């Protein structure tokens, strides 16, 4: 098993979007099901935490997440 954990702070665009977190959750569920990925999405006071679990080596999509990290 492979696990990926990442956190992000919600943007103003996301915060002002009606049903933003619900839209993200639905999108993630649909996408993850197609790729056989399970996970946990946690949202607390503007911070999104995500733990993803995948049986095979993580896909190239995660490279995009890593390239967007800010220190």
TrEMBL record:
Domain BLUF: 1-71
Coiled coil: none
Cited InterPro entries: Acylphosphatase-like_dom_sf, BLUF_domain
GO molecular function, one term: FAD binding
PROSITE patterns for this protein: BLUF
Protein name: BLUF domain-containing protein
